[in-house]
Amino acid sequence: MMLTDWTLALGGLGLLLLGMQLLTDGLKAAAGSHLQSYLERSTQTRLRAALSGFTVTALVQSSSAVVVALLGFTNAGMLKLKQAAWVVFGSNVGTTMTAWIVALIGLKLNIGIVAWPLIGLGMLLQLVRRADPLGSIGLAVAGFGVLFVGLDTLREAFEQLVTILPVGQLSISGPFGILLAVLAGALLTALVQSSSAALAIVLTASVSGVFSPLAGAAVVIGANIGTTVTALLASIGATAHAKRLAAVHVLMNTVTGIAALILLVPMWWTAELLSGGEQVTNISTGLAVFHTLFNVLGVALMWLLDERIFRRVESWYRLPPLRSGEPRFLDKTVLEVPAMGLNAVQQELNRVLRQYILRLRTLLKDEAALTETEEDIATGELLAHIKTYLTKLSEKQLHGDEALLLAELHTSHARLRDLRDIVEKLRAATPEQIDASLNHQLREQLLELLNGADMKVRPAANWASLTSSIRATRNLLRHTWLNRIAANELEPTEGAALMQLASMWERSAEIITALKT
């Protein structure tokens, strides 16, 4: 029967992970851009950000999924490091809900009464309402049911395996045994890529007597440290923003883990007291209490240490050099939620547009532009990166406003490529040619249109009025040059070059107006 028990345990683990994946995917799809707007509204203070992290993780049942999403939000410029970090700190506390669900419901109720109806109703809802958020909610409900079936299967397997496994060897003694249990928890979480799933496995095993109480507590500490592996993997090849947040996550869980190891005995004594005593039936509840105490301790420590940690990780991971064409907001993490990817692309397009506006103002000899410290971006390289991510976003399943925004971003990218060609041609002209292509009126009109301070509040009607004035002035200049050519006062070749430059000034104004309105 040993092989059957092992295959039963493996199947239970697979169902557990499948249920968590369905639950997470369903809720993420149902939330869509609403998750973004919720986090933007609710992360203005440390406490509100932590409560947001707790709430989202309690619903999604995966701190790893929340952290990966936050990496994308931070990259996309939706959240600052401090805001995202405190959502992560609250998210760690949110994972305790999984432990409580397992300890109080999953291991003490008849699973069939709860799980099978959830799976049936959830999948029925998903099939009937596949195209709207209700279908995604149905998928999440079905995932919740599959999760419970996985827990029940694991429990049955562990009840059989406990008679075969050398349980005595799993009881820890001394510092080496504690560290071994911590390592086991970290490895388990790294393998299943979810601390919530790892905790469900540990709590299920503890009821069957596989773990002694202190061994279980040490494994819980390891599981919390191991959950950082997902963030680290997600940050590989990502931008500095993502690496900073991943580093904060690692430091937070490591510092809390060290503190919990030092306080292991008193913390377990407190957890045991709150859970009702030493009986084996209470071990799972005791571990749930211990897990809660661990994460609350982490939030308390971060309340004291967060600013030091933020400064340290910012010194470790610098933003790309100013002349770089590397993206600052785009990497693989922003593709997790399409709304994040769209926002990140918009941020990068805005960087390119600011660069072209500055270059045009410099050509117009705007004194303010000459003193500005705006970054000098390799715009061609950055536009190529943006095109790659637009292509990847086009492969995602987008609906409604998101699909419309993607189409607009493709149009903006094409306009910026046209603007790049114009700016490069203007920069290739000699200063004398630039001066000759402008009269005082046209120069002033262009500088007014390119005034950065006014752009943010300028009504659409004013943009249209400015471009009309520029067009009219350019037509007057063209008429003047044609008359001079006819009177043999201007060489035809030189006149044609001046008219072409003036047309470029007009076209650049039209493109910028289109992008801004």
Account of the 3D structure:
79% of the residues lie in helices and 0% in strands. The longest helix is centred in the middle third of the chain and has 34 residues, at 283-316. The chain is built from 24 helices and no strands. The protein has 517 residues and is an all-alpha fold. It has helices spanning 2-31, 33-41, 46-60, 63-75, 81-94, 96-106, 111-128, 133-161, 174-192, 195-207, 213-226, 228-235, 240-262, 264-275, 283-316, 338-363, 367-371, 379-394, 400-428, 431-436, 440-449, 452-455, 460-486, 492-516. Helix 6 (96-106) runs parallel beside helix 10, helix 6 packs antiparallel against helix 15 and helix 9 crosses helix 10. The protein folds into 3 domains: 3-316, no CATH class; 324-352 and 363-428; 430-516, no CATH class. InterPro entries: Na/Pi_transpt (IPR003841). Its main location: membrane.
Concise account of the structure shown:
It contains 24 helices and no strands.
- The level of helicity is over 70%
Give the tally of β-strands: 0
Count of helical segments?
A: 24
Structural class: mainly alpha
Indicate the radius of gyration in whole angstroms: 30 Å
Subcellular location: Cell membrane
Pfam family, one: Na_Pi_cotrans
Membrane topology: Multi-pass membrane protein
Transmembrane segments: 50-73, 85-103, 109-127, 134-151, 171-190, 197-215, 221-238, 250-271, 283-305
